[in-house]
Structure formats: C-alpha cells, structure tokens
Design a protein that fits this description.
CATH superfamily of the largest domain: ATPase, nucleotide binding domain
Order of helices and strands: EEEEEHHEEHHEHHHEEEHHHHHEHHHEEH
CATH topology of the largest domain: Nucleotidyltransferase, domain 5
Radius of gyration: 22 Å
Largest sheet: 8 strands, mixed
Shape: globular
Number of helices: 16
Helix content: 25-40%
Strand content: 15-25%
Distance between the termini: 8 Å
CATH class of the largest domain: Alpha Beta
Length: 422
C-alpha cells in the first residue's frame, strides 16, 4: 500500500513515497524534491533504494522561457511521477499504485484543528489563510490542486502545522491588544511546527514508556526555523511561534521576540512595509547579528570559534532565548518529565545542547557530557544523568511519517481506505 507525502513550498516540492504493510509497518521507497520552481534552472533531487541519489536538471521549453512561463507545481509533480515510474530507478508500476496523498499545509487558522480530507470547503479554508501565511499557504494549495489533476480520485489529506497547537487556552493565544482585532481579523497566536512537535512528543512518550496523555514535555525544534512547545498530557498549552512563524526564538534569519515599537521606529527611519518584512524574516536572527552572510548555525559556530565576536554573540542570543522559554515552560507545566531536542540543530549540535542544559540544572536536569557528544544524529538518546529529575532527550523528528500516519488513520476512520494484506 503506497502513499505519497507532499510538502509544497514557494519554490520547491518535496515528496516521500511510503509503503505501508497491513501490519502497520512502513518503509520509505523514495524521496526527494524539485527545487527552483518558478525559476529558469529547476532540478530534481531523487533518492531511492540503498541511498541511490541523483540530480536532474529539468528542461523548460524555450518558448515558455521567452514568455516568462516557468515550471509550475503541477509541472514539477509530473516530473516527480515520471521519475517514480522510471523502469530503472522508479518505485511505482503505475500512478494507480498510490492509494492516498498527505499534504503539509502551514496555516489552518481556527477553522481546522485536525487532519482533514480535502474538499472544496477545506481548499477555501486554506485560501482564507493566505493573508496569515502568504509565503506558504498558496504553494501548499497549488500542491494539492496539482495532485487532484494528476491522481484523479485519490483522496488527499491535509495536515496543518497549526493544528496541534489549537489546544492552547485563550490566556496563551490571545494578544493583549484590543480584543476586536482578534474577533474581526483573527490576530492571535497560532503556533507552527506542529507536525514536528506532535511526532516528537508521541515518540518521546513511547521512548519513556509513558502514555502520551500522561507525559509533560518541553519540546525544542531547533533549526533554521526554531520553536518550542509546552505539552501537558498530550495537549499543547503554549508555544513560542505566534500569528506567524516570526515570533519566539532567535532563528537563522528571523528575529524572534522584539519590542513592537522597533517596527514603528523602522517606519520612522524610512523603511517600507515590504522592506521591514524582509529585514525581520530574512535578514535578522543569527544572520543579522553575526554578519557573515549566512544564518547557518554551523558556519556561525565556526566563525565564533575563530574569534568572531559578533558570531559568538549570535550564538549566545540563540541559546539565551531557549533557556528563557525552557524556564517559563517548566513553570507553566509545574515541572516537566523531560526537555526534548529535535531539528537540525537540536539533533546534531552537542555544543548547543550543552550550552542550554548547563543553565537548566535548577530544573533538575543534569547533562551527561560523554553521552551528549555521542548523540549527534544517532537516533533517540537520553543525554541527562541517571539522577536527573527531568530528563534531557534527543529525538529525531519525522514530519513526513507523521503526515503519512495521520492521513492513513483518518482515511481508515472515514472508510475511505482499506488495508490489504501483502
């Protein structure tokens, strides 16, 4: 039983093909992405089998190029399907092998709080959130519509990044601004990275052999985009990202929490709306502080190690913000069973984890430095000492698998899918 998972970005289309057995087991048959959609030089990166990886430049008809018509998401998906059906590298014998398609959608607002089978009402809800997620929701919808054309009759399921966070109470998601701005325009905290936080929290509960509806966790998705969540008995009670993914932690290129008056001052200095948006989202964070033309934490740590004081400051800002929220979330939870690290930085940087955890001993978590160093990218690991009252855990995330599983579960509940023994 083969399932396709799609994550359509503004200029990319990521895909994973899973094979689910009737016993509930799954394996990845192929994955990859089309990059530079809407540009003159698109290409397909494809991985299958025993790590077989290839990169293919995708040609665009010269007439289309002259007319300024570049590769669309539908074109990209056709290229992906062609590769998946390839006699040598493909993993499908026919398009009809795909029995369901799961989609990552960034923003569902307040209307959608769980996985849903895509219909016209769902597509309208995605459109209604275009203003809240202008860089993400339009391509997410384009990916869905492309799949509807290429896989007619195959059910599409939308999994929303905001959905897992919708258990927050009003005191966590309402901003202290005139209330009608919330009721009229939906200005409130929504939270993002929900699929990752959900996967990591459930995987950690299983790892600790504790029921998901009993565990209390602080989950830290640390990467180019970073966020944290306080999870109490399976429900999110607070998260760092807000109405958009800009709020909260210091990130690769995003500023995170700042005084709103900073924006007003930037207007006074002559910056336009679009310029300010670009500065806060694309030129701030680690990139803005370090000043070395990259927001990649690895590059900035290397620069700091070589004596770059601004790079060192950028790392301190990043770490300090995580520490601050960890303390706050421990208080909100009235104590946590564990703090969990995931994402590119969270899973692979023992130095960042150490800098964070050495300031959290008052919460009852003590780092085992040897295990911490050995735990970069190696899978689930407990990096705290045995006498810690709050555990520190490294847990790899797998958003694609979470999307696939939630899609399968929904379709089975709705009798839209039948598991067949193979």
């Amino acid at each position: 039983m083969k399932m396709l998972v799609i994550n359509a970005g503004s200029s990319s289309l990521k895909f994973t093909v899973f094979d689910f057995s009737w016993l509930g087991k799954q394996m990845v048959l192929a994955s990859g992405q089309v990059e530079c959609i809407g540009m003159a030089t698109p290409h397909l990166i494809y991985t299958c089998g025993e790590g077989l990886k290839s990169k293919t430049d995708l040609e665009i008809d010269e007439k289309r190029l002259k007319a300024g018509k570049y590769l669309t998401h539908r074109d990209a998906l056709k290229c992906v399907c062609s590769k998946l059906l390839d006699s040598e590298e493909g993993v499908l014998t026919s398009i009809t092998d795909v029995i369901a398609i799961g989609h990552r959608v960034v923003h569902g607002g307040e209307k959608i709080t769980e996985p849903v089978i895509v219909d016209n009402d769902v597509k309208k809800a995605i459109k209604d959130c275009f203003e809240l997620a202008p860089l993400h929701n339009p391509p997410n919808l384009s990916g869905i519509e492309a799949c509807e054309k290429i896989f007619p009759g195959v059910p599409n399921v939308a999994i929303f990044d905001t959905a897992f966070h919708q258990t927050m109470l009003p005191e966590a998601y309402v901003y202290a601004i005139p209330y009608e701005l919330y009721t009229k325009y939906g200005i409130r905290k929504y939270g993002f990275h929900g699929t990752s936080h959900h996967y990591v929290a459930t995987a950690t509960a299983s790892y600790l052999k504790v029921a998901f509806d009993e565990v209390k966790l602080i989950t830290c998705h640390l990467g180019n985009g970073s966020s944290m969540a306080a999870i109490d008995k399976g429900k999110v009670i607070d998260t760092t990202m807000g109405m958009t993914p800009l709020e909260g932690l210091v990130m690769g290129t995003r500023c995170g929490d700042i005084d709103p008056a900073v924006v007003l001052r930037m207007f006074e200095l002559g910056n336009t709306h679009d310029e300010i948006d670009k500065i806060l989202n694309e030129k701030s964070g680690l990139l803005g502080i370090a000043g070395i033309n990259t927001g990649d934490c690895r590059d900035i740590m290397q620069a700091a190690a070589k004596g770059n004081t601004k790079a060192a400051l950028a790392i301190k800002l990043f770490v300090n913000r995580v520490i601050k929220y960890a303390g706050a979330y421990s208080a909100i939870l009235n104590g946590a069973d564990g703090i969990v690290f995931t994402g590119g930085i969270g899973e692979h940087s023992d130095i960042i984890r150490e800098l964070i955890l050495e300031k959290l001993t008052s919460l009852g978590v003590f780092l085992d430095k040897d295990i911490n160093v050995k735990s970069n990218g190696t899978g689930p690991a407990t990096i705290s000492t045995s006498d810690s009252t709050m555990k520190a855990i490294v847990m790899p995330t797998n958003e694609e698998l979470m999307i696939a599983k939630e899609s399968i579960e929904l379709l089975l509940r709705k009798n839209r899918l039948r598991l067949v023994a193979v």
